[in-house]
């Protein structure tokens, strides 16, 4: 299944690469016909799409390689490099675009064939939007940052092109050619922000920053399949490596269980997490024995060593499951301290 996922991701990013080449050619043709600085800005940004899609293709192929002695967690983090590389290229392009816009604003040049050029740009908007939406949808499906980043880049390119078309229409309507340079400058600032967002997410992934959405998905999977003998889960940590996940946590089980039964329960717990993620999921679960204070929120029936009657459940949410301690209420903590 994982092999099929990787092949699907490679085909999608290859589609993006070919489409970027085609659209870049159309935009440069539109610039040749119009001599519009705004259209040139859009064309320059499309060159970034080509380089970014090419690097994303390389990163996805590399991330699909199996683990080895030098990369015990696999090669998935290269997708964060891909997103960071794309973000850096976008920021560089925004600087070039802004410089060109200011130069043209100080030295205006006549424009021509704006209607034909606008038609070509409109075609690129349709194609960019279709491919971008597909990449974002599939990127989220396969938890691939490289696909998602490339898709969002194409969508932001479409939005920028729409703003560009509006500026061209304003030039045609008013005859004020300086609008073209101002639109190019705004365009540069817009893609600079998009580049910053991509770079920020790349650095966060490389630094193993906690992803609240990813953590919430894992917690929801645990809650949806919760068993009475899963007494407590804590110290839950989730790390992403490309489209793969590494999860570790502590699972509290009845202390009197035999080793084989505890082992089978941990395997059941791991299977729940693996079934709720499309990529590979590596899981390390540390088994903790229950304490007398756990009886207050333990629903295990027929327990022959129960010290206290069940009182209420403790909410298994992102905050609680991430704590490096068993989940006790304040009153139960006082009892535990007195007992210790």
From TrEMBL:
One of its GO terms (biological process) is intracellular zinc ion homeostasis. InterPro entries: Cation_efflux (IPR002524), Cation_efflux_CTD (IPR027470), Cation_efflux_CTD_sf (IPR036837), Cation_efflux_TM (IPR058533), Cation_efflux_TMD_sf (IPR027469), CDF_Transporter (IPR050291). One of its GO terms (molecular function) is zinc efflux antiporter activity. This is Cation diffusion facilitator family transporter. Residues 13-207 form the Cation efflux protein transmembrane domain. The keyword Transmembrane applies. Residues 215-290 form the Cation efflux protein cytoplasmic domain. It comes from the Bacteria. It is a multi-pass membrane protein. Belongs to the cation diffusion facilitator (CDF) transporter (TC 2.A.4) family. It holds the Pfam family ZT_dimer. Its main location: membrane. It is found in: Membrane. Keywords: Membrane, Transmembrane, Transmembrane helix, Transport. One of its GO terms (cellular component) is plasma membrane. The chain crosses the membrane at residues 12-33, 39-60, 80-102, 114-136, 157-176, 182-199.
């Amino acid at each position: 299944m994982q092999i099929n996922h990787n092949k699907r991701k490679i085909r999608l990013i290859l589609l993006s690469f070919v489409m970027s080449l085609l659209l870049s050619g159309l935009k440069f043709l539109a610039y040749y016909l119009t001599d519009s600085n705004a259209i040139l800005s859009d064309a320059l940004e499309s060159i970034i799409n080509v380089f970014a899609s090419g690097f994303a293709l390389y990163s996805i192929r590399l991330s699909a390689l199996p683990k080895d002695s030098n990369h015990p967690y696999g090669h998935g983090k290269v997708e964060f490099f891909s997103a960071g590389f794309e973000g850096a290229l976008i920021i560089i392009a925004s600087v070039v675009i802004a410089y060109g816009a200011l130069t043209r604003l100080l030295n205006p040049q006549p424009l021509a064939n704006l209607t034909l050029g606008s038609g070509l740009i409109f075609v690129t908007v349709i194609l960019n939007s279709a491919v971008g939406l597909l990449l974002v949808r599939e990127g989220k499906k396969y938890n691939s940052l490289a696909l998602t980043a490339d898709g969002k880049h194409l969508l932001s390119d479409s939005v920028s092109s729409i703003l560009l078309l509006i500026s061209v229409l304003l030039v045609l309507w008013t005859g004020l050619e300086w609008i073209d340079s101002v639109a190019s400058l705004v365009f540069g600032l817009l893609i600079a922000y998009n580049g910053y967002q991509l770079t920020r997410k790349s650095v966060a992934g490389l630094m193993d920053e906690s992803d609240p959405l990813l953590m919430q998905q894992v917690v929801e999977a645990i809650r949806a399949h919760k068993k009475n003998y899963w007494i407590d889960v804590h110290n839950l940590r989730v790390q992403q490596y490309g489209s793969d996940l590494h999860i570790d946590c502590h699972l509290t089980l009845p202390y009197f269980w035999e080793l084989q039964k505890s082992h089978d329960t941990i395997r059941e717990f791991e299977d729940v997490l693996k079934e709720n993620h499309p990529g590979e999921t590596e899981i390390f679960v540390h088994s903790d024995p229950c304490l007398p204070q756990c009886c207050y929120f333990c629903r295990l029936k027929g327990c022959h060593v129960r010290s206290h009657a069940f009182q209420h459940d403790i909410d298994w949410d992102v905050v609680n499951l991430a704590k490096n301690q068993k989940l006790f209420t304040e009153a139960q903590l006082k009892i535990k301290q007195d007992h210790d």
